[in-house]
Amino acid sequence: MQVLVSKLHWEDFSPGRVFEHGPRRVTREEIVGFAAEFDPQPMHLDEAAARGTLLGGLSASGWHACGILMRMCTDSFVLNSASMGAPGVEEVKWLRPIRPGDQLTLRATVVEARTSKSRPDMGFVRFMFELFNQTGERAMTLTTSLMMSRRPA
Amino acid sequence: MQVLVSKLHWEDFSPGRVFEHGPRRVTREEIVGFAAEFDPQPMHLDEAAARGTLLGGLSASGWHACGILMRMCTDSFVLNSASMGAPGVEEVKWLRPIRPGDQLTLRATVVEARTSKSRPDMGFVRFMFELFNQTGERAMTLTTSLMMSRRPA
Asked: What is the pLDDT of residues B97-116, one digit of tens each?
């Protein structure tokens, strides 16, 4: 696999470094479309049914929010990096409903960077991802570690 | 909100209880379609590019796997329960690639059930969700707690 040296490598992800992206508008059509395919619960499909739920109105599936966050990460820095993917997710918190028309902004903060004992050509970069809505409220947080190639010597 | 007493309530989710669902086939078209919208990295879009990555071939985005797992949960028991949603996710592990043509099976195990101190009408049910492929390998695990209405007295 060709790795362009100009891409961001493990060495570029110093703890405290922040990447931002957005705003990205969420439409009713995509909320309902995602839910119909992956999470067909009333609060993600129908305004009237959603009013009687904890969310208090039509809101995106939490998994849709994860997908939107991933896409904003890809567009922000992942495609311009030597990322090798992630082995999983440490934690997700859905803090506030995401409504039709919301404008989401991503903040990705490098929390920790460590080398790999078994693979000297890569390291781990632990991120705290935050999604904010248009009023500055935090709608979601997600913590995970990406595997990242180290810069060739 | 009308709650049908015949639905599964918090009291029905005893630790150790297992729900199973599937198999559910995953197609190349849906893998590429999901990736194009939410996770446009080469290993989820293009067979040739994917061969040079850690996944070793075209594989579903981990977020797509989460969506499939959620849909299998909804079809298995969530829509037949008094679930009020989840505040987040405790942990996700992507253990093996999910390939075009894979047949996935879900196993949902109740790990813990506890009441809510602040809301006596609901409780929490902690689940361990596992996705297996057609050869019985565990492709993914996910741990989370659902908020569940208690059965009216």
From this structure: 999 999 999 999 999 999 99
SS3 letters for B2-62?
CCCCCCECHHHCCCCCEEEEEEEECCHHHHHHHHHHHCCCHHHHCHHHHHCCCCCCCCCCH
- Min Cα distance B17 → chain A (Å) is 22
Q: Residue count of chain B, please give it.
A: 153
pLDDT of residue A5: 56
What dihedral do alpha carbons A64, A70, A74, A76 form, nearest 10°?
A: 100
Whether residue A61 and residue B68 make contact (CB cut-off 8 A), yes or no, is: no
- CA gap A21, B79 in Å, rounded: 35
Nearest CB to A91; choose among B68, B70, B88: B88
A52 touching B (Cβ < 8 Å): yes
Give the pLDDT confidence of B82-97 residue by residue, as tens digits: 999 999 999 999 999 9
Does any CB of chain B come closer than 8 Å to the CB of residue A54? yes
Check if B128 contacts A (Cβ < 8 Å). no
CB neighbour list of residue A117: distance below 8 Å, 6 or more residues apart: none
Q: Measured between CA atoms, how close is B87 to chain A, in angstroms?
A: 5
Closest-CA residue of chain B to A148: B54
Q: What is the ipTM of this complex?
A: 0.95
Segments of chain A scoring below 50 in pLDDT: 1
